[in-house]
Design brief:
The complex is a heterodimer of chains A (about 200) and B (about 100).
Chain A: H1 2-26, H2 30-50, H3 54-79, H4 91-113, H5 126-129, H6 162-171, H7 174-195
Helix pairs in contact in A: 1-2, 2-3
Chain B: H1 4-24, H2 28-53, H3 61-92
Helix pairs in contact in B: 1-2, 2-3
The chains are: A mainly alpha (about 200), B mainly alpha (about 100).
Amino acid sequence: MEAAISSILFYLFAAIAVLSAFGVVASRNPVTSAMCMAVSFASTAAVLFCMGAQFLGIVQIIVYAGAILVLFLFVVMMLDVKSEESTLSRLPRAIVGVVIAGIFAGMVTKAALLLPGATEGKCPVAALCCDEACTTDTGATDKFGGPLPALKETDTKEISGTKALGETLFTQYNIAFVILSFALLAGTVGAVALGRKIRKD
Amino acid sequence: MTPLAHYLILSGILFSIGLAGVLIRKNIIVVFMCLEMMLSAANISLVAFSRAQGTEGVPVYDAQVLALFVVAIAAAEVAIGLALIVAMFRARKSVESTAITSLKD
């Protein structure tokens, strides 16, 4: 039952994410685009929660839906951007873009469905129409594309995975983490340098 | 549980919607938003692979660390990109991508 609920929630949030992503591309007003982007990022975070990556889901909400979105809204309101021209004038462009993106999406879908075990479950929400036998398979290598293995039961006091993620980040990837902080510093300095008024003389 | 393939398809669809936005839209701010969507779509497939590759219910945390790095780089990129957009607006009084044609003319 738990698996069924998590599957249903995944499809629900996936649909919301895709629809609001369409909203970002289709809406003429940049503020509407930004709001649709917030919804899309929030449901992406929900999908990450469904996969048991709680820390990354929270980071997704804080960084994307919090910081990045507010930056976008600040710039949109500061620059006083006008709405774009009618959709008819950019129809050829739109057709080319949709065709290229459609080809890409088709390629990814085909490649994902070709993974071993990807079409194992006949119905999308496998837990609703079969017993526990087909939801609990542990052969990770031979049915790689199939249902994800269930997460290990953890102590309820411990937020699952966050501790292990931190251990991996600060031991194995410590140097990369330090270099990343320099990249963030360079980004800040660059933004300040670019944001200055350029003197004419 | 949901198959890995469905997570990958969701990630691919979100990525290609972002790609379509980058190709179609002329407003550079919206193009930039679509770039951010493409980055977060890549995160979904990273986390899905980290679950699928794990043994005995313990995910491979390397992929999640990489996803964390992607988020941090996206934040730095937004800071730089929006500063560039503001500088462009000061110079051209427009944020349309069709306004930057000095190299073409």
